[in-house]
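User: I'm putting together a small comparison set for a docking exercise, and I want a reference complex before I start. The sequence is below, and the ligand is 2-acetamido-2-deoxy-beta-D-glucopyranose. Could you produce the 3D structure with the ligand included, as structure tokens?
Assistant: Of course. I'll restate your input first, then give the structure tokens for the complex.
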Amino acid sequence: MQWKRRHCCTNIAGILVLLLCVGVLLFISEYSLLAGKKDHQVNSVTHTSQKLERNHSMTKQKILRQEAMSPFPARSEGNLSSILEDSSQQGLKNSLASNASLSEEVRAESILKVEPYKYIINEEDKCQEKDPFLVLLIAIEPQHVQARDAIRQTWGNESIAEGVGFVRLFLLGIREGLTTSQLQSSIEAESQQYHDIIQQNYIDSYYNLTIKTLMGMHWIATYCPGASYVMKTDSDMFINTEYLIQKLLNPSLPPRQEKRKYFTGYLMRGYSPNRNKHSKWYMSPELYPSKRYPTFCSGTGYVFSGDLAELIYRASLSIRRLHLEDVYVGLCLAKLRIEPVPPPNEFLFNHWRVSYSSCKYSHLITSHGFLPTELIKYWHHLQTNKHSACINVPKEKDKVRRLRQRKLLWKRFMA
Ligand SMILES: *[C@@H]1O[C@H](CO)[C@@H](O)[C@H](O)[C@H]1NC(C)=O
Ligand SMILES: *[C@@H]1O[C@H](CO)[C@@H](O)[C@H](O)[C@H]1NC(C)=O
Ligand SMILES: *[C@@H]1O[C@H](CO)[C@@H](O)[C@H](O)[C@H]1NC(C)=O
Ligand SMILES: *[C@@H]1O[C@H](CO)[C@@H](O)[C@H](O)[C@H]1NC(C)=O
Ligand SMILES: CC(=O)N[C@H]1CO[C@H](CO)[C@@H](O)[C@@H]1O
């Protein structure tokens, strides 16, 4: 009797569980069908592109390596190029606006194809052993040896984040002039000593900075595609690399939580092209007819996830080259429909010089306009004071206030 009842009850319970399962299954399939329909287009594109980005297989690296050697970069690689082409129509509307027709873009691309810049100095094996967490790409003119030395001693010192994989690379073109060969041989000696220089054979000038940035993107995509993050910056910057690595990027997160298609820095939103011919930032209406630039990040220092290097480089193959490097990267991002994200707070990235205090400098990432000697001085001050950098700040404020009050009292008393 008891056995029977229990048996029948378990039977009923079993049936109920079964029904519940069927119901849940039906619900899930219905839901995913609906969701699938709604986001179908978006999903299929982002999904394939993500898959491609994560696949840093040897074959892909080989293709890119061949590209670095051959004068004509291989164009089609799986579906990445078709994705770019798909988005080009939309990207064009967003960024280049009316006058830059597709045929013009194709022309620009063919120009790029026939003028590849060969590596004169390269560090092909920099990432062979281990994928670095952060690669610093530092734009610098060949003759600025002192600045390179200051950076090696300060924010570019690889022992700042030895365990996590931190790579420093200086980006160089070549210099024209009488002393060229002498300079070149000293650069080669420097490269032998530090192994932190890459150089291509374009003339190193302000107007060629975009080429320099693209060299960096190409290098990451070709020789270091597994880098988690990349920062592109300049030689006259103060970079708090420790804060950048530990606080903004955080190497202790598991790889799955690392950011993808991430781009941040000092955001320049809604800027119009400068039409004053005497300005350093002049942009001719012929080159860029549109009234506004897409959102871009100041070239003084921007940070992005490693997956973007290849995407930006490939997007650049079909975007007419503009000399304003940061605007240009913004155009590539617009074409890829990737929006730069604001940093967690507005004080982190500065494209001007922030007045020095160890408290302020222990909580920022970039500050602009430093001579090599200043860099060394402030860096060492920050290193010795960073652990107690902000302790005395409120006290100092109090002191100033008390002094002011005393002065006021004194003035009243005297009056
Ligand atoms: C990566 O690419 C290789 C060859 O292109 C392929 O065999 C492999 O399945 C791909 N892996 C993933 C995860 O897509
Ligand atoms: C980098 O930092 C380490 C440790 O602080 C120091 O020993 C080394 O000399 C520094 N490297 C340079 C080039 O200054
Ligand atoms: C940029 O580099 C190329 C290649 O060396 C050179 O032909 C061109 O004149 C340079 N442009 C400027 C503005 O320096
Ligand atoms: C594009 O710009 C050129 C001058 O650079 C001009 O002659 C032409 O009419 C413009 N085309 C359109 C569609 O605005
Ligand atoms: C090489 C490769 O994977 N090509 C595929 C790209 O995507 C289209 C559909 O969009 C497929 O048909 C191709 O096979």
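The beta strands are 119-121, 134-139, 166-174, 197-203, 229-234, 237-239, 263-268, 296-305, 366-368. Residues 98-99, 286 surround 2-acetamido-2-deoxy-beta-D-glucopyranose (ligand 4) (CB under 6 Å).
User: Thanks, that's exactly what I needed.
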